[in-house]
Amino acid sequence: MKYFKEIAIYIGLPLIFLAIMAFKNINHRNMITSIQQDSQDKGFAVVELFTSEGCWSCPPADELIARLQKGNNNQQLYIMAFHVDYWDHQGWKDRFSQADFTERQKQYAAWLRLGNIYTPQLVVNGKTEMVGSDEGAVLGAISAALRGATAPPLTLKAEQGNGTLTITYAGAVPHKKARLLTALVQKTARSEVNAGENAGKQLSHVQIVRQLQQQELKEQGTVTLKLPAGFRAGDWEVITFVQQKNTGEITQAAKLTW
Fold first, then answer.
1. What digits encode the pLDDT tens for the residues 164-180?
2. Within a domain: residue 84?
3. How many domains does the chain have?
4. Distances (CA, A) of 152 to 42, 92, 155, 168, 222
5. For residues 155 and 200, is the Cβ–Cβ distance under 8 A?
6. Which of 10, 95, 133, 242 is deepest in the core (most CB within 10 A)?
7. What does DSSP assign to residue 180?
8. Considering the domain boundaries, does residue 33 fall inside one?
9. Cα(96)–Cα(45) distance, integer angstroms
10. 3-state SS, residue 97
């Protein structure tokens, strides 16, 4: 009987583990569906993922924001992936990485009083941070943000010409301690990684920030972005948001898609 009990234990424990994981996956899918379908949401969520092609633990976070982006049902959900450069010396240089994005992450460490920076890190509305691959924490933070207070509408218009994109904005709430940030975002990309922690993998990316400009906030004004060679409007979007200088909190956001 002891022999059969041991077999039952050896078989039962993996089954219990699989059942728990299946329940968690179903629950997370339900949470994503709830986020996508809740038409009563009045708030907004600016989601910033700090990631790198050289980080072995980053692909699950990239996949999570890809699912969120794919299923976004006209929610005020603004997703941006910032590729940092401090992994570039680990054997693989991320072609999307920028030192400015590392500095932005360091600024969040100061705002949120964190001891260090890491990847994958995800920040929601400049106020809440978590491990970017922690589905439960990410979905919970986004859901809470979408249920938040309605922000004053920020309107955007764009005009393309001579290799630039001129964004005209209106409806910003002026504040001497706030600034306006505008990101030029590439919707999708794929990379063959030949070295580093993800060597041999083909990585898929979404919502890659290629430019980030910031300027003093006015009630209305313009922003000019330099367009990359071969720019096709349908492959890109622009996200503009208002951020408090002293706390990092994001108080307004809008985007342009084509």
1. 999 999 999 988 899 99
2. yes
3. 1
4. 11, 43, 10, 17, 18
5. no
6. 242
7. E
8. no
9. 23
10. coil
